[in-house]
Amino acid sequence: MVWRPIFILLWGMEKFEEKACLCALNRIFGFSPKTGLALISHTGSAADVFRLGSRELEELLGPSSRYKGEITWKAVEEASDELARLESRGIGFTGWTEEEYPSLLHECEDAPVGLYVRSRTPMDELWKPCRRIAVVGTRDITPYGREWCVRTVAGLSRSKEKPVIVSGLALGTDFCAHKAALESGLATIGVMATGPETVYPHRHREFAERLCETPGCALVTDYPPGTAPLAVHFLRRNRIIAGLSDSTILIESKIKGGGMMTCRLAFSYSRDVYALPGRADDLRSQGCNSLIRSKIAEPLTSIEDLTESLGLNRVGAKGRRSVRETLISEYGSRLSPEKAELAINILTRIKEERGITIEELAEHTGMSYSMTANITAMLETDGFISIDLLQRCFIMIEKFR
User: Fold this and answer.
1) If pLDDT is split at 50, 70 and 90, which confidence band does 321 have?
2) Residues 6 or more apart in contact with residue 44 via CB below 8 angstroms
3) Contact call for residues 385 and 350 (beta carbons, < 8 A)
4) How far is it, in rounded angstroms, from Cα 124 to Cα 107?
5) What is d(CA 265, CA 263) in angstroms, rounded to the nearest whole number?
6) What is the dihedral of CA 331, 335, 341, 347, to 10 degrees?
7) What's the whole-number average pLDDT of the chain?
8) For residue 320, what pLDDT is reported?
9) Which of 336 and 92 is assigned the larger pLDDT?
10) Cα separation, 205 vs 118, whole angstroms
11) Prediction pTM value
């Protein structure tokens, strides 16, 4: 096959093998990415997963696992052929262990093993650190929702740091957000629930081609070629929309819907969530109102307040800071190293489990209740967390900008 020497020349033998193995594992563990990522973590690379013996695979996966028989070098050969066909059509692939893989997805335990990418922008430039904001909502968008969707994206385009808009290329809110982004001069990423060669709905094909040809824009999916637009695929792709984004904005949604799922996933990833409030008797605002009431989302009432909260107008803003670097910056000269470390441990736990109580924090960290209460009070006073009447702790995302 003439394509293999060309790929090896471009990437090198080791990188070529790793990419093909990642692609194979993505196909094998598409609906169980945690298992695929656990195997990669155990061995250190995707290629080393395929070097495991039958007995070791059985120990790791269990004797009755159907995956054991699928982890073969034949699967890697088939993935290699797939990569070649896709490359000839301008479709790339990046996987978990590669430098080009989106860094924010590394924070998500259910992230895909790999992503297929359609874009004219090189992979390393496409996924470089920048602010990405998801804008999602109902397919049955109202004039009120459409107006706020366009106004929000246009307002974000006027900030000092230009964010990338992420959505799902679906009807209604998604399409409105993508279109508003392009018209406002912002890059946008569409996360699809089909294989990389298929655009759904079909009426968006022409727009999708325009999007792919725009610098900084892309269509992405973790589904391999030939995947049909089934309902379950749309639900699963929401984790990628939330995972790729620093923040998620819900424009309109009923109490149940894909946008609500995306916001809850974003919340579970410790990302900030915003929702457009609406009338109490409007079904398409009940989801937004519910997220605001339950403190999952901040209300979107002003574009100026939104850009300020997101930190998009701060000079040199480049995304979220880690818990450690934020607290060391704040407390480095004020606390002893031991107490600063305790504060870092507590805040990290709150970041991982929003709504955790002070008593639960003490149990998880092994500290006394009084010490835990003392540190959480300090963190609340300094604006890192909020504590409600039930002593539940919530991280204040804006402090990490």
Assistant:
1) low
2) none
3) yes
4) 19
5) 5
6) -50
7) 90
8) 58
9) 92
10) 13
11) 0.79
Residues in Cβ contact with 393 at an 8 Å cutoff, skipping those fewer than 6 apart: 350, 354, 355, 356, 357, 358, 361, 376, 385, 386, 387
User: Is residue 384 within 8 Å of 397, Cβ to Cβ?
Assistant: no
pLDDT at 161: 92
Cβ neighbours around 205 below 10 Å, total: 12
What burial class does residue 112 get, using C-beta atoms within 10 Å of its C-beta: 0-12 exposed, 13-18 middle, 19+ buried? buried
Q: What is the largest CA-CA distance in the chain?
A: 69
Domains (ranges, CATH) in the chain?
1-88 (no CATH), 126-310 (3.40.50.450), 323-400 (1.10.10.10)
Tokens describing residue 317: 């803003």
For the segment 310-339, the average pLDDT, to the nearest whole number, is 75
pLDDT tens per residue across span 114-168 = 999 999 999 999 999 899 999 999 999 999 999 999 999 999 999 999 999 999 9
What is the rounded radius of gyration, in angstroms, for the C-alpha atoms of the chain? 22
Alpha helices (H) along 161-270: 173-184, 205-212, 231-244, 258-268
First vs last Cα of the chain: how many Å apart?
A: 50
